[in-house]
């Protein structure tokens, strides 16, 4: 039990008038508006707690019983010591305690002591102190155990030692590991001791996990390259390739931090050509078998690639709500429809490039002059193309044969362009698949932001916004599917 008389710096069993006077004095002294010491606010709250306790007659009665019991026990021990050893009475240790059993870095602990029948009291942290008092201790550095030693000199000069041993709170092993590493490397970043994610740059990944991720990303890069060659969605696929490249670099970065040989040499990954050698080395370099300044030792992984895919799909399925599954599934469906439509061929009819022109907007301070480029086929079909396509066809004569393909509904699907000498071909798309149409780019950016919302907005007060965003994305994806199909 806390001796609140000590907190208010008054004798035990003091009357209410003394309690009130001490409270007024200390509350003025330690009020946060007056005292700018970082401990003042905490001590001010403790003073109020002590006052509320002591002004309650029932609680004060219980404290008095406790103090009488402690004094009686101390007196009994003193009498026994005098009888057996024929020495002067030992000091009366009425109170020597802290308000915590375990501590963390940054914690404040209230130390209290109340000693009588002695000459001098010395506390290891504070030096010589009054016979009774309180003091707040802030734990600023990591240590596995913290010992507070109080030395009391009795009236006959005999020294009595008392100690309080506190242990570091081990309830969070990751935090303990971080504090241990920080004691050795003060510049360590705590972000590396947070959960590692596929899209993140922090923490470490082991060799087998690294191999599976690199194979997965390599397959996606290959698919992206094939569609880049076969379709006209080159801008979108190029941006997708950049994202995949960034994810690949993120895995290399985390894997380098997992090895003793390269954890402090990640800058090698920025050296052209030599970084390919480092990437190859990371496939066979062993994991550093201990916690290091870049995170915890990663969990061992023995999955084959297909087992890894199944395990990942299972984890994603567990963490996705039904709304999230429908919304993100609609994005996958949209791209499936786009790629199917882009790969379908139709009956083609020869046609001629009959005209071309440009449209120029009025100049403005905000955007300057905007130029749109158009090609006209058979005096009927006007196609908006990029400046590069316009120059290739009109000025460089890169293509000299054209064929029109129509869907069953009669809508123009694409115009195939061919160079009769080199047999090089390309397609001018219409609608969603048109190179100048930003819909698919916006959808891709929307999906990336959706992944961020899914991973980060998980707090109870953020779920309503996250669900609203999922619904907004779903509507956008469904619109894209309808536009693509019809």
UniProtKB/TrEMBL annotation:
Gene3D superfamilies: DnaJ domain (1.10.287.110). InterPro entries: DnaJ_domain, J_dom_sf. The chain crosses the membrane at residues 214-230, 236-254, 266-283, 326-344, 437-454, 466-485. PROSITE patterns: DNAJ_2. The keyword Transmembrane helix applies. Keywords: Chaperone, Membrane, Transmembrane, Transmembrane helix. It holds the Pfam family DnaJ. CDD domains: DnaJ. Residues 3-67 form the J domain. PANTHER family: DNAJ HOMOLOG 1, MITOCHONDRIAL-RELATED (PTHR43096). This is DnaJ domain-containing protein. It comes from Paenimyroides aestuarii.
């Amino acid at each position: 039990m806390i001796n609140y008389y000590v907190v208010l710096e008054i004798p035990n069993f003091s009357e209410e008038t003394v309690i009130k006077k001490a409270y007024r004095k200390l509350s003025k002294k330690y009020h946060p508006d007056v005292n700018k010491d970082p401990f003042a606010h905490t001590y001010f709250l403790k003073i109020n707690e002590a006052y509320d306790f002591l002004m309650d007659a029932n609680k004060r009665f219980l404290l008095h019983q406790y103090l009488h019991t402690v004094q009686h026990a101390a007196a009994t021990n003193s009498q026994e010591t005098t009888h057996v050893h024929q020495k002067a009475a030992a000091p009366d240790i009425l109170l020597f305690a802290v308000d915590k059993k375990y501590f963390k870095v940054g914690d404040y602990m209230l130390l209290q002591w109340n000693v009588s029948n002695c000459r001098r009291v010395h506390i290891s942290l504070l030096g010589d102190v009054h016979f009774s008092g309180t003091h707040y201790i802030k734990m600023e550095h990591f240590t596995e155990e913290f010992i507070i030693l109080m030395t009391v000199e009795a009236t006959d000069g005999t020294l009595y030692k008392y100690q309080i041993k506190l242990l570091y709170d081990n309830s969070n092993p990751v935090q303990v590991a971080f504090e241990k590493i920080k004691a050795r490397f003060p510049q360590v970043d705590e972000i590396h001791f947070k959960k590692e994610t596929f899209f993140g740059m922090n923490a470490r990944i082991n060799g087998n996990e690294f191999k599976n991720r690199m194979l997965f990303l390599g397959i996606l890069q290959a698919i992206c390259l094939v569609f880049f060659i076969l379709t006209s969605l080159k801008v979108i696929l190029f941006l997708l390739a950049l994202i995949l490249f960034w994810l690949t670099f993120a895995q290399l970065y985390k894997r380098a931090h997992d090895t003793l040989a390269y954890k402090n040499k990640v800058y090698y990954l920025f050296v052209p050509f030599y970084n390919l050698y480092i990437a190859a080395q990371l496939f066979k370099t062993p994991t550093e078998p201990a916690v290091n300044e870049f995170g915890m030792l990663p969990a061992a992984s023995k999955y084959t690639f297909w087992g890894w895919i199944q395990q990942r799909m299972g984890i994603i399925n567990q963490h996705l709500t039904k709304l999230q599954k429908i919304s993100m599934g609609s994005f996958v469906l949209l791209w499936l429809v786009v790629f199917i439509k882009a790969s379908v061929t139709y009956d083609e009819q020869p046609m001629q490039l009959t005209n071309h022109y440009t449209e120029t907007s009025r100049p403005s301070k905000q955007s300057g002059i905007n130029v749109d480029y158009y090609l006209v086929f058979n005096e009927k079909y006007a196609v908006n193309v990029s400046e590069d396509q316009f120059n290739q066809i009109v000025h460089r004569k890169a293509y000299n044969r054209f064929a029109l393909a129509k869907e069953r509904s009669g809508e123009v699907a694409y115009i195939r362009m061919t160079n009769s000498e080199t047999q090089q071909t390309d397609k001018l798309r219409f609608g969603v698949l048109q190179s100048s149409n930003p819909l698919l780019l916006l959808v891709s950016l929307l999906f990336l932001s959706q992944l961020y919302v899914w991973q980060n907005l998980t707090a109870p007060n953020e779920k309503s916004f996250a669900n609203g965003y999922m619904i907004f994305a779903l509507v956008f994806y469904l619109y894209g599917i309808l536009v693509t199909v019809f």
